[in-house]
Amino acid sequence: MTANALRHIVPGTAERRSRIWRHWFGPAVAAVDGLVVLAIVHLASAAYGLASFGTLTLERATPELALMLATLFVFIDLIRGRYQIGNYLSARRQIASAFAVWNMAMVAFLALVFLAKISEHYSRAIILTTYLIGIPMIALSRSLIVRLIASAGKTGRIAAERIFLIGREENVMSLVGRHKPWHAGLAIVDIAFLTSDRSANRKALAADLAAAVANCRGKRPDSVFIALPWSEQELIDACVDAFTNLPVAIHLAPEPVMERFERPHIVKSGSLTSLRLTRQPLSAFEVAAKRAFDIVAASCGLILTLPLLVMVAALIRLDSPGPVLFRQRRYGFNQQAFRIFKFRTMTTTDDGQVVVQAKRNDPRITRIGHVLRRYNLDELPQLLNVLAGDMSLVGPRPHALAHDDAFESRIANYARRHNVKPGITGWAQVNGLRGETDTDEKMAKRVACDHWYIDNWSMWLDFAILFRTVFSPKAFQNAR
């Protein structure tokens, strides 16, 4: 995009239409939410009537239940500030937020009817059905709204925020080229290029800034973005001073280094303010919670699978000569080496500076080894590693030391996957990224999944990965 193309301003009619959209967006989405919840409750009541009595009759308390749940759902969204256009640019985040609010609304409703001693007025079956039906229906409605906002934003019919850009031409064009603000719901109302700096010509800079402020005042944007390198403190200060007297939010445009990180965050400690690019993957409480779950779940897993473990061990001894368990050095948390346990599935037990990865139809794989690998049963002894504290049930899969050393020199931030404990299963594996990594591209995709897991960890995510490990076909793809 050229500077002249960037200077194209939204026509007045479209601008007025965009303002109307922005003004009425919150009430409109709140009304849609209310109608969706009303429909969910009536649908649940009708389904219950059909299943119980064979007719589409509604419970007498249905309208009252529907009104209470709709009011609670909309009210909680309001106090959380969710009815703003900027919150509807990501379907994944919006659905997660809606699910959280739906849970809060149900808990608040149950608490209210319990305290008011009127719980007997409502059918427990209808309440449960309402909750279950509500999860996909609310997710669907929010997804449709996000899609509508994204489409309208790209065509200029609606914008979450109207912005004014100022800076040197190369900095402004770099910002626009990297981020394409219209994809983030931002409408550029105008731009001002600085042709001088404070140190070279104070009068010329003052004239540039005065003209930019006058133009910005007439455009009435929501925000001003200063697109300058952060090292130019004097010039940034001059821009801030010039625009402070306008009723706008002032933003310092991001440096390119911030684009490497998903959630940079301003942190203030006393008088010290810093830009935190990354955080510890897990807090002390999260580490303790994850460890407690690992111990309980791994212990139960060992007890429940003990007959299977004994049977597999016997089959391995009968199938081919060699040990039942295969031990290999791998990197764990903070790149501390440990020995991983697996059922032996090959005729070799490589653990040196050269480790040849298993391939599909690899002649080194034993007969029982094919079955164990196909259904991930060779990983079961790693429950012992979990109990020992070297591994977690869920995390980035550990690789042989030889492979780690090789890929670390070829893939950016590869070693970052060791910032959490390795897992028996992981986000990459349930997304089909198993098997041989014979190219850097394959490994890079797996590492990207590992980084996403680290940045988005939650106990719910661990539960989801464990569920998909057992029941999702993708978890068994590319098994050798």
Topology overview:
Elements (H helix, E strand, L loop, with lengths): L2 H4 L5 H42 L8 H18 L11 H25 L8 H31 L6 E7 L1 H11 L6 E8 L8 H18 L3 E5 L5 H11 L5 E4 L12 E5 L2 E5 L7 H36 L5 E7 L5 E7 L23 H8 L7 H7 L3 E3 L6 H8 L14 E3 L1 H4 L9 H16 L3 H13 L9
Helix pairs in contact: 2-3, 2-5, 3-4, 4-5, 9-11
Structure description:
The chain has 480 residues and is of the alpha/beta class. It folds into three domains: 4-154, no CATH class; 160-272, Response regulator (Rossmann fold, 3-Layer(aba) Sandwich), CATH 3.40.50; 284-476, no CATH class. It is built from 15 helices and ten strands. A four-stranded parallel β-sheet has the order 2-1-3-4. The protein has a two-stranded antiparallel ribbon with strand order 5-6. A two-stranded antiparallel ribbon has the order 7-8. Helix 12 (401-408) links the parallel strand 9 (392-394) and strand 10 (423-425). Helix 2 packs antiparallel against helix 3 (62-79), helix 2 (12-53) packs antiparallel against helix 5 (124-154) and helix 4 packs antiparallel against helix 5. The protein is flat and about 85 Å long. The two termini are 48 Å apart. The model is unreliable at 8-14 (pLDDT under 50).
